[in-house]
């Protein structure tokens, strides 16, 4: 099968991450769909480093860039549908969505089809692939609460359906039950039929709350740290007097202390340095070791 996607060399990854900072990727492949992605993977040598990126909303690429090939899934793995309509009288429905679909689109699609439960995904700025990989959540709900199956692909381009039982799923963490070189490319969500109009109203309310509480006017990557048990990372960071703290163009948000924003001209080193400073300060002043939620890749 001939490849239908596009391969580019030396790509500025700051255009593909929401922090709008960072280095370059040695190569980037833009697949057109799942079949094309599988065909591309089958052509890659075993030694080729592979990185999968969606909207880059939870990712920092260091200034030295990424070696190997980065695969951009957004705008490629974009199918979403109700999988089984044979029993419309059923109280449940199965929604299939691919990893490149933006999480808010999953929420809107479900509500439009009178399916409820995933409204919270409207508050997750990345793609479904990222939400699956980290069990993204907000307002007390998490992605894997509704997952009944996932579709993975390995580096040889072979796909496989897997059940949630084959993964260790926790708070902002998902790992296979045994070592596997695979990536999420789709998932099936089992959702309740319900009041779609109420669901759409809840989505609007969640988005209003997000706009009111988060610094969406500046480039950011969402929550930088996981909330420790029984507490909130933002409270600890604010308690330590770190709101407004800067390194270069990176700043701890004045609006939400668990956000680091690119206030203008920030480098990846500025952002990573500020992440490290916040973690070290909170550890020293409160004894709490904050666990980073954002992914950092590449060379310094």
Summed over residues and divided by their number, the pLDDT gives a mean of 95
| Shape verdict | globular
> Based on the structure, what is the oligomeric state of the protein chains?
single chain
Distance between the termini: 38 Å
What's the β-strand tally?
19
What is the correct CATH architecture of the largest domain? Answer: 2-Layer Sandwich
> How many independent structural domains?
3
Class inferred from helices and paired strands: alpha+beta
List low-confidence stretches: none
In percent terms, what proportion of residues is strand? 25-35%
Radius of gyration from the alpha-carbon trace, in angstroms: 20 Å
**Portion of residues within helices:** 10-25%
What is the CATH topology assignment of the largest domain? Uridine Diphospho-n-acetylenolpyruvylglucosamine Reductase, domain 3
What top-tier CATH class of the largest domain fits best?
Alpha Beta
H-E string: EEHEEEEEHEHEEEEEEEHHEEEHE
Number of helices: 6
Main sheet specs: 6 strands, antiparallel
Explain what this protein looks like in three dimensions:
- With 300 residues, the protein is of the alpha+beta class.
- The protein has three domains: 6-72, Uridine Diphospho-n-acetylenolpyruvylglucosamine Reductase, domain 2 (2-Layer Sandwich), CATH 3.30.43; 80-213, Uridine Diphospho-n-acetylenolpyruvylglucosamine Reductase, domain 3 (2-Layer Sandwich), CATH 3.30.465; 233-297, UDP-N-acetylenolpyruvoylglucosamine reductase, C-terminal domain (Uridine Diphospho-n-acetylenolpyruvylglucosamine Reductase, domain 1), CATH 3.90.78.
- It contains six helices and 19 strands.
- Strands 6, 7, 8, 11, 12 and 15 form a six-stranded antiparallel sheet that branches.
- A hairpin with a 7-residue loop joins strand 17 (250-252) and strand 18.
- Helix 2 (103-112) packs antiparallel against helix 4.
- It is globular and about 55 Å long.
- The two termini are 38 Å apart.
- The model has no long low-confidence stretch (mean pLDDT 95).
């Amino acid at each position: 099968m001939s490849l239908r996607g596009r391969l580019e060399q030396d790509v500025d990854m700051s255009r593909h991450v929401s922090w709008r900072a960072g280095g370059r990727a040695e190569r980037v492949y833009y697949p057109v769909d799942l079949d094309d992605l599988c065909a591309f993977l089958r052509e890659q040598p075993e030694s080729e480093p592979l990185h999968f990126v969606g909207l880059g909303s939870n990712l920092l690429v260091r200034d030295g860039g990424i070696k190997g090939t980065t695969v951009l899934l957004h705008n490629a793995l974009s199918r979403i549908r109700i999988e089984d309509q044979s029993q419309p009288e059923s109280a449940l429905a199965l929604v299939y969505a691919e990893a490149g679909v933006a999480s808010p689109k999953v929420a809107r699609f479900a509500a439009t089809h009178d399916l409820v439960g995933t409204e919270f995904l409207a508050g997750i700025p990345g793609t479904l692939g990222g939400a699956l990989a980290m069990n993204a959540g907000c307002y007390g709900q998490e992605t894997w609460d509704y997952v009944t199956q996932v579709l993975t692909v390995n580096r040889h381009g072979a796909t496989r359906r897997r059940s949630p039982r084959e993964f260790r799923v926790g708070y902002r963490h998902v790992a296979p039950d045994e070592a596997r070189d695979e990536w999420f490319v789709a998932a099936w969500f089992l959702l309740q039929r319900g009041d779609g109009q109420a669901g759409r109203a809840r989505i609007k309310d969640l988005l209003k709350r997000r706009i009111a509480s988060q610094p969406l006017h500046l480039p950011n990557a969402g929550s930088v740290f996981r909330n420790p048990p029984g507490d909130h990372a933002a409270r600890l960071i604010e308690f330590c007097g770190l709101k407004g703290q800067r390194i270069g163009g990176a700043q701890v948000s004045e609006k939400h202390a668990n956000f680091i924003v690119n206030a203008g001209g920030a480098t990846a080193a500025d952002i990573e340095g500020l992440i490290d400073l916040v973690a070290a300060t909170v550890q020293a002043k409160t004894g709490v070791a904050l666990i980073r939620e954002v992914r950092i890749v590449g060379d310094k």
